[in-house]
Structure formats: structure tokens, C-alpha cells
Design a protein that fits this description.
By secondary structure, the protein is α+β, with helices and mostly antiparallel strands. It has 16 helices and 23 strands. Strand 21 (about 415-420), helix 13 and strand 22 form a beta-alpha-beta unit. Helix 9 (about 255-260) packs across helix 14 and helix 10 packs antiparallel against helix 12 (about 385-410). The chain starts with a strand and ends in a 7-residue tail after the last helix. Pathway: Polyol metabolism; glycerol degradation via glycerol kinase pathway; sn-glycerol 3-phosphate from glycerol: step 1/1. Keywords: ATP-binding, Glycerol metabolism, Kinase, Nucleotide-binding, Transferase. One of its GO terms (molecular function) is glycerol kinase activity. This is Glycerol kinase.
Length: about 500
């Protein structure tokens, strides 16, 4: 078995990666390609779904080629993906009728406020575990079917899309379903991604008829929902297709649930935080869907074939790594690796706080009209202060969520597993340990999102037999412990809360 592997497609917000893992969970092949970020209007974010599919094929071929691995050596492929991002495509041609509407997109904020005014927030939360927010897929697909102008839509026929959806001519899915469809011809999603649509009842574990009616989504266009690790497989790649091999597609997980799985957080109370474009703090709550009273989401963590669903509490932070990208955009830094050196060059921000609410605030505030704010600047403020304040904002937002997580779960956070691109920054991880006053463990394999998807698919086909094998693969790269006085951490965080207050409810139309 030493010459076989499991592949993982990791389709993220800014790009697509393909990684191949061996039995030890070691990366043997890796390729990555960015895709275009499309901003048609302020607060709108789109991706070209066809570009994503073409990039997916490219990175799979490139990674296999670089490693000298044949597609026939893949025992399975798993998929992990940016969640909530929504695509509607033609069932006959397989072509999207519009760009994908990205999870960050805020165009349906008015619709969400209608739901709030109609007192439907709690109704939605009880069914889905989610806040009523433009973040999720329901209002995105509703907008596509009812508000989008077909004449302006890429590749769309100039006729009513709602009518076409009712007639069974359209399919809808999140990115995992889109990739599975293109790989296998089947429109299938997993329970973790379904739970992020705001159309799926996480108690009954099925599409919810009342929510489908509320948002005008015909059930016929929705994907079939399967376990995250599926021994029945989602399908096979086409032996006459780009891979020239018949490989089982056997698992999928939304990116944050995939990181939970890749970090081997298989038991109730296990927690991880992934630092990517945004940051996502998840705690496994076992077979119980724990309701949040502090602005967190109750979501499906994962499900293996024939086993009960594992639930999770989640704190979704919309902008963390993207705030560092913004520093590049405005030319305060040339490269993200500069941030640690610049931040270390000063002792503090001198009272400067940066709230990166570029697309509103997620957990625990849930304010779609909050906007990015820098407060506390003086004539002596330099770029070093703004860079350090940006890094600190990541740590403060994580503390907001950690405190809510502890209050909801009743479990004291004693250690936290971290992953994602930003955790390569030792300054940031140490700062995070100081601000939340807990130990932090960084694994050797930090691409745990892709690893989780590989584990899900590999378990389904028997490449790995037990969860204990996966636990044995997990190795610590470095551990961080708090070095800051707890009272100082509390004072800094208190002032952060004042800065957050300044950012709230800003984006109002004149």
C-alpha cells in the first residue's frame, strides 16, 4: 500500500490547492493557483465558477506531475471548500448562470433586516443553528433567482430564473457540490456544507420545506446530502476525463469542519482555530447540538457513514488574514512576512486599535453594517502601529469568540489547536496566547483543512481504518504559553471592545 495515496482538493476563498497525502499524513504533492476576486459593487464579492473548475483541474495535474504520482495511485479524493459561497448552474449544459456569490458578499443585507423585522431570526436559528445573515447561502440563491437581471448575468438565458428553477432546469450548490458535479456528474453535498446554507434543518437532518418556501428555492435544484466520509462514495472521476483514471470521490467537508477533522478534534470539548481569510473557531460538542446564547453558530461538525452526526459550536470571524492582505493593498507592507518584524519594532500600538470590519462583523456581534475602523491615532502614529494593531485585532476577535465559546459550552478552554497560513507568524501566535491567556499548539502539518478532507475520503475507502491512526499522525510543531500579565490582557481587550463599538452600524444609506 506504500505506493497509493489520498488526494484532497482544497478550494478556498482566494485560490485552489491540491494536496496528496500518504499513510502518515505527510504531504507528497502540492500545487496552488489563485483566482480572481470580483467586486461588482461595494460590499459585493463574486468568483467565476468556471475559472475555479479550470484551476482545480490545473492544480491536480500539476501536483501529481511534480510528485511523479499517477492518478491511478490515488485511492480516493476528498474535497474541502470555502463554505456558503453559492453557485446556480444549468442542469443541461452544466454552465453557471451567474458568477458564484461569495460568503463575504453583503448584497442581501436588506433582506436579512426584513427577516429581523418579521421576527424570524429565532425561527431560523432553531431550525438551522445559524444567525439570520447574508453570510449564508439562502439569501444568495434567493437573490440569484429573483433579483438578478438575467440579461446581465454571464452565460444566462434571458428568461426568468425562478421559473426555470421550478421547472427543474437549474441546479444549486456550494463549492463542494459544484466540484463533485464536475468530477462525477452527481450533485451531492455533505452534511457540514448543507448545514451552512440556512436551508437545512440540523435537527431533522434534511432540507427544510418551510425555509425553502421562505426563500423561494425549489428542492429539485438542491444537492443530495450525504455523510462527510461516505462509504457509498459520491461517485467516480471519468476515466476519459482530465485525470484519465476512475478515482472515488468519497468525502467532503466545509473548510472549517475539515480543519476540525484534520486537527483530530474527534471528541466533545476538542477545539481549533483556523486563521485564513477569516478565522473560524470550532469546538466539537459531540452528538448534541448545543444552542448558543452568546452569538455563536450551532453547526454540523462531521458525519461518518453509519454513525451519528457530530455537532460543533462555531465562532465565525469574517476578516483576519484578509486584514493583512489589506495592509498590502494600501502599501503599508510589501509582504505579509514583514508584519512580525514591524510589530516587534515597537512596544505597543500607542493606543491605536484597528477593527477590520470590511464586510461587517461576524460572531459574536453579527452586524452586517459594521465597517472597518482605525481609532486612537495621533500625529505620532506610524505604519508600525497600524500593522501591530492589525495583528492584535486578530487576537482580540479570537478572544471575543473564545469567551462566548466557554460561556455556551461550560467548558474552560485550557489549550487551543491552531492552523492556517497566519500561524506561521510566531509573533501572532504568541500574541494570541497572551490575549486569550491559554496554551496554543501548532501542528507540524499546518494545512489541516486539506488533511481533514483527505482523512474523510481515506476512511471511507479503507485507506485508514481507525481514528486512532489519525491521532497518531498528529504531531506538535511548537507550543506557546501566555507571557503577558492577565490584568494587562484584560485591559487591552476592554479597550478593544470600545473600538468595536465605534465600528457598529456604520454602513447606512443616506
Amino acid at each position: 500500500m506504500s505506493d497509493t495515496y489520498v488526494g484532497a482538493i482544497d478550494q478556498g476563498t482566494t485560490g485552489t490547492r491540491f494536496m496528496v497525502f500518504d499513510h502518515d499524513g505527510t504531504v507528497v504533492a502540492n500545487a496552488y493557483e489563485k483566482h480572481e476576486q470580483i467586486y461588482p459593487e461595494p460590499g459585493w464579492v463574486e468568483h467565476d465558477a468556471m475559472e475555479i473548475w479550470e484551476n482545480t483541474k490545473d492544480v491536480v495535474i500539476k501536483a501529481l506531475g511534480k510528485a511523479g504520482v499517477e492518478a491511478s495511485q490515488l485511492d480516493a479524493i476528498g474535497i474541502t471548500n470555502q463554505r456558503e459561497t453559492t453557485i446556480v448552474w444549468d442542469a443541461e449544459t452544466g454552465k453557471p448562470v451567474h458568477n458564484a456569490i461569495v460568503w463575504q458578499d453583503r448584497r442581501t443585507t436588506d433582506r436579512v433586516e426584513e427577516l429581523q423585522e418579521e421576527d424570524k431570526v429565532e425561527w431560523i436559528r432553531e431550525k438551522t443553528g445559524l444567525e439570520a445573515d447574508a453570510y449564508f447561502s439562502a439569501t444568495k440563491v434567493e437573490w440569484l433567482l429573483s433579483e438578478g437581471d438575467p440579461v446581465k448575468m454571464q452565460r444566462a438565458r434571458p428568461q426568468d430564473l425562478q421559473e426555470r428553477a421550478q421547472d427543474g432546469e437549474l441546479m444549486m450548490g456550494t463549492i463542494d457540490a459544484w466540484l463533485t458535479y464536475n468530477l462525477t456528474g452527481n450533485n451531492i453535498t455533505d452534511v457540514s456544507n448543507a448545514s451552512r446554507t440556512m436551508l437545512y434543518n440540523i435537527n431533522d437532518m434534511e432540507w427544510d420545506d418551510e425555509l425553502l418556501e421562505e426563500f423561494g428555492v425549489p428542492e429539485s435544484m438542491l444537492p443530495e446530502v450525504r455523510p462527510s466520509s461516505d462509504e457509498d462514495y459520491y461517485g467516480y472521476t471519468d476515466p476519459d476525463g482530465f485525470l484519465e483514471a476512475e478515482v472515488p470521490v468519497a468525502g467532503a467537508l466545509g473548510d472549517q469542519q475539515a480543519a476540525l477533522f484534520g486537527q483530530t478534534c474527534f471528541d466533545a470539548g476538542d477545539a481549533k482555530n483556523t486563521y485564513g481569510t477569516g478565522s473560524f473557531f470550532l469546538m466539537n460538542t459531540g452528538n448534541e447540538a448545543v444552542s448558543s446564547e452568546h452569538g455563536l453558530l450551532t453547526t454540523v461538525g462531521f458525519q461518518r457513514s453509519g454513525e451519528p452526526v457530530q455537532y460543533a459550536l462555531e465562532g465565525s470571524i469574517f476578516i483576519t488574514g484578509a486584514a493583512i492582505e489589506w495592509l498590502e493593498d494600501v502599501e503599508l507592507i510589501d509582504d505579509p512576512t514583514e508584519t512580525a518584524e514591524l510589530a516587534r519594532s515597537i512596544d505597543s500600538t500607542d493606543g491605536v486599535y484597528m477593527v477590520p470590519a470590511f464586510t461587517g462583523l461576524g460572531a459574536p456581534h453579527w452586524d452586517g453594517r459594521a465597517r472597518g475602523t482605525i481609532v486612537g491615532m495621533t500625529r505620532g502614529t506610524r505604519r508600525e502601529h497600524i500593522v501591530r494593531a492589525t495583528l492584535e485585532s486578530i487576537a482580540y476577535q479570537t478572544r471575543d469568540v473564545a469567551e462566548a465559546m466557554q460561556d455556551d459550552s461550560g467548558v474552560e478552554l485550557t489549550s487551543l489547536k491552531v492552523d492556517g497560513g497566519a500561524v506561521k507568524n510566531n509573533f501572532l501566535v504568541q500574541l494570541q496566547s497572551d490575549i486569550i491567556q491559554t496554551d496554543i499548539a501548532r501542528p507540524q502539518v499546518d494545512e489541516t483543512t486539506a488533511l481533514g478532507a483527505a482523512y474523510a475520503a481515506g476512511l471511507a475507502v479503507g485507506y485508514w481504518e481507525t481514528l486512532d491512526e489519525l491521532r497518531d499522525n498528529w504531531q506538535v510543531d511548537r507550543e506557546f504559553s501566555p507571557e503577558m500579565d492577565p490584568n494587562k490582557a484584560d485591559k487591552l481587550h476592554d479597550r478593544w471592545e470600545d473600538a468595536v463599538d465605534r465600528s457598529l452600524d456604520w454602513a447606512r444609506e443616506e
